[in-house]
């Protein structure tokens, strides 16, 4: 394993908690359900989807599912792309906008 892989794994080690994984995957499922049920209402509640927010939202859902089921990519680049730090931040931001 390369040194970069080890550093990225150490960076993600504090988030390797079962309850946090469960909370994140539940939050992702709730966001998907709200979005799929009534997309226009969801977009209105968060102040509409800009192109960047739409892409970040889809990515955050995917990354949260990867993190939530406990999958750990081996290659450092995939570990960064599916980083739970960023996906939790984006989902938290969208959740805040929705329920604000």
The first-to-last residue Cα distance is 44 Å
Could you give a short account of the major beta sheet? none
Number of distinct helices: 6
Query: How many separate domains?
Result: 1
* Helix/strand order, N-terminal first: HHHHHH
Helix content: over 70%
* Residue fraction in strands: under 5%
The low-confidence parts are none
Would you report the number of β strands?
0
Mean pLDDT across all amino acids: 93
Radius of gyration: 14 Å
Shape: elongated
Structural class by secondary-structure content: mainly alpha
**Assembly state (oligomeric):** single chain
Written overview of the protein:
The chain has 100 residues and is an all-alpha fold. It has one domain (3-99). 77% of the residues lie in helices and 0% in strands. The chain has helices at residues 3-12, 18-37, 39-45, 51-68, 76-81, 84-99. α2 (18-37) crosses α3, α2 crosses α6 (84-99) and α4 (51-68) crosses α6 (84-99). The chain is elongated. The termini are far apart. The model has no long low-confidence stretch (mean pLDDT 93).
Structural key phrases:
100 residues, single chain, elongated
